[in-house]
Every structure is written in structure tokens, then in C-alpha cells.
Amino acid sequence: MDLISHLLPSQTELSLQHWNLDTTTQQVTVYLASTQTVAQCPLCHRPSHRIHSHYDRTLKDLPVVQFSLTIVLTVCKVFCLNDTCPRRIFTERLPGIVAPWARRTIRYAEHLKAIALALGGAAGARLSDQIGYGHSRNSMLRAIASLPLPQLTTPKVLGVDDFALRKGHNYGTILVDLEQHQPIALLPDRTAETLETWLKEHPGVEILSRDRSKTYKRGMSQGAPDAIQVADRFHLLHNLEETLETAFKGHHSVLKQVEKAQRQADGLEVLHPSDLPEDPQAPKALNRAHRLETYEQTHALRQQGYAIKDIAHHLGIGKRTVYKYLAASTFPERQPTIRQQGSGLEAYKPYIQDQWNRGQQQTKALFHQIQQQGYPGSYSTLARYTHQLRQLPASGKPDPESLNALPGRGPAPPISASPQPPLRARRAAWLILQQTETRTAEDNILLEQLAQQPELSGVISLAQGFIDLVRQRLPSQLDDWLQAAKTSSIKAFQSFAKGLEEDYNAVKAGMTLEVSNGPVEGQNNRLKMLKRQMFGRANLELLEKRFILTS
Predict the structure, then answer these.
(1) pTM beyond 0.70
(2) Residue 173 in contact with residue 163, Cβ under 8 Å?
(3) d(C-alpha 392, C-alpha 424), whole Å
């Protein structure tokens, strides 16, 4: 009895009458009685000792080892001694043990809410079965929904970013206190009006951090006109990367020449299918010819004074395509995608080449062979590789015996694995944005070769100048850089500089203040994890409670 009494929710307000142990159902039932002599009316709060009757409450409590614990608690109904009180009879309250009308003890309910907050519905239900709680996922979600949000204190430094409730369809806004690194609210959309309303309802924000969104800029300007807006430095460099990619896409042939020169210098001459002469009647060649013709027509119509929407309607293309073509000084070649990582094929390439040289050049047969050896990838990945082998010219004479044994085209040429990925516009942009200390010797050589190209030297010089402004915090030099970018002949940087001028104060504040949107991005990643845990049930109210209360 002493051991059981120590397991009770309270030893001062409850007395142990007796208990039963059922080993078949693994159930412990404890019979308790309240020891209170005076009860307080819940309406008028007047104490009373006049008992009307007794009744039993059945409560679920924390399990004991592998046994479920049920409490049968005897409490009183009491007369209210206040003649003016509308409540004539009330039930005895035990606020530290159980809530009115509840069927669970307070400590049990708190455990249930903690599990639901940490794991969500389905995962919380699975854990509850293991530890003897036995609740469904709906019960877990109801436990979260019953929790109140903490009282909101308006922060002085507020970070704003958007998040996807359903990517490509529904978006919301996340608000984070950047001093405490705590999320404070989720807004149902990412419109300027919603943000403006929230800021007006919570005056006192002094600094607002955001990305380069014009929508958030408008909402902040109207909702908190006296607050300082800060453009996040990461997003400034991200916008620069996009500008570099746009500029480099117009110089695809230059990038290809630089890459080829580097491979030759390193003794890693590798033939790619894109290096081979293309049949002018091939579908890809015809597609490129059609896009080139559209590109030339776009510039011709623009020179004649046609509006963007009229050009798009006349040529049957989108306005974004028109903008892209007009921003490119030369025809923007499509960047081929080279799938090199994550396919799992690299470990099997020596075996494939050996079989290829022996004359076994049927993709399906090769696929079955490497599957038996543990190849986890798909047939299409192997088919792309064997197609590449067929496109490349043979580099040796076939073995006559192998040719007699199996039909084939001879030994496959040795395909060296280049230590660097192909030089495309994105990689060239990343080379420039990379920190100096993280670049390899090969990266430095490649960057130097790019800077020596007359077509690219101006692009690289402007990009490196802006990187120094952001990373070294040099707001005093921003005006000179903007003037240089606007007067350059590079359309991508002219457009980039125009956008920076429209957001001039926020950009300059980003180079001056220490405020960063990094904590907001971190909270956004955590929000994505919670959203995916609750995919089918993550409505905004439920998601907000779990997101804020678990921070």
C-alpha cells in the first residue's frame, strides 16, 4: 500500500482506499477518495462544507510499467451557501489533479500533449501504443488543438519569409522574432495586405528583415512605415547568382571552349555527345533552329517598337520567354543536364566497359547482369550511358575472337571520369560566388581562364565588385557600383542594378546592419519537416500550434 500511495497524483488531497491488479488485461485499478473538507464554489468562490452527496469519477492515469492505471475517485457534491449565487449545487474541484469533466488526470494529459507536439498524429499514436497509452492519431491532434498559443509580445526585430502549404498553389508567411530566434505567427497567405494588417495590429516593430520580395516590401512600407527594412545578404548574393547565370547563358560557346582547353591541359580530354557534330535533321537540331528563329524575331519586333505582350501574342510564346530573349545579347543555348551523381552506376562502369569490349552491347542484357550484382538504379540510367558509348567513336581494334563470339562494334573508348563537373552557366556563376578559401587550385585556374575571355571579363569584374560590397560591408561604395552596372553593356546587370535601386534603402541597410534572415530560413526548414509529418492534416491552425509550441 505504501508503494501505491507514492504513485498517486497527490498524497495530501487523496487517500487510498484499496486497489486491484488484473494480470490478464494488465490493468491496475486504484480506488481513491478526496480528503478535502471544504470546497469552493466555481461561480461565487465562496467556501462551503455542506455535502449534498458523493459520486465516482473514473480517470485514466499514467501507466505503471506495462500495466495501465485507472483511478476511481470518490468526490463530493456540495451545496453553495451563497443565497444570491445561481449555482445551488456544485461538484468538488481538484485543480492540481484533474480538470472539471475530464476523464484523464492532468499529468496524463500533459504527457499526451507532449507526445503529440513532438511527433504529431500518426507517429504519436504508434508511440502511445508502445508505452500503454493506446490513443488514436485523432486523439493526438485534438490534444494539440486544445492547447492555447502563448501570449504574443511584439518583437523589435522581425524576420519575414514565405512558406508553401502546397507548393505551387498555396503559400503562407512565417514571422520570426530575430532577437529570440523564435517563431511568433503564421499568416494564411503571402499578400501585402495580410502583412500590413498584422503590422498595424502589433505596432512597435523597429527593424524588418526580408528577402527581395516586392510584395513584402509594400506590406512593410504600409504597415510599419517607420521601421527599417533590411534586404537579406544571402538573398542579395542569390539574386547575383541568377544574374550571372543569365549573363553566362548568352556565352555558351565561350564556356565550352574554356572547358575544352582545361580538359586538354589536364590530359583529361573527354568526348561528350554534345561535342559531336549534330545531324541538322535531328529533332534537337530542328528544335534549336526554331528557337533561334523565334529569338531573332523577338529582337526584330522589339526594334520596330512592339510591346512585350504583342510580341508574345504574335510569336505564340510567353511574356517571360520574351523578357529572357530580350535580356540576352546572344542566343541563350539550353544547358544540357549531365546526370553524374546519385545514379549508383559508377561502381559498375568498369564491368560494363569490359562487357562492351567483349562485344556484349545489348542494354537489356547488361542491365540484368549488373542487377544480379546489386545495381540499385534504373534501366533508363544505364540506357543513357550505353547510348553515350554508342555515340563516341571507337578507340581501338576489336578482338577477333570476341567479335566471332558476340556481335558488336569493337571496344568502347576509355571514358575518363573528369574530376570537375561540366562547365555550365550555373557552375561558372558558383565559381565566382565561392569563398576564396574554399576554391580548389583547379577552380582558381578555371576562374582565371574565364576572366581572360573578353566576353566574360566585364561580367566577372562587376560580380566580384558586388560580392566585395556585401561580404566586406562597404555601403559607401554601393552608389559607384550601381553607376558602373547601369552604364555597362551587360543587360543582365543593368536589370539587376535597376532592381537594387528600387530597393536602395533596404539593400544599403543589409550591408550596414548585422540583421540576417538566416534564423527565419532555419525555422522555415523546421516548418517544412513538421508539414510533411502532418501532410494530410496540416491545416494552418494545427500547424501553427505545433510549430510555435515546440520551439
Answers:
(1) yes
(2) yes
(3) 21
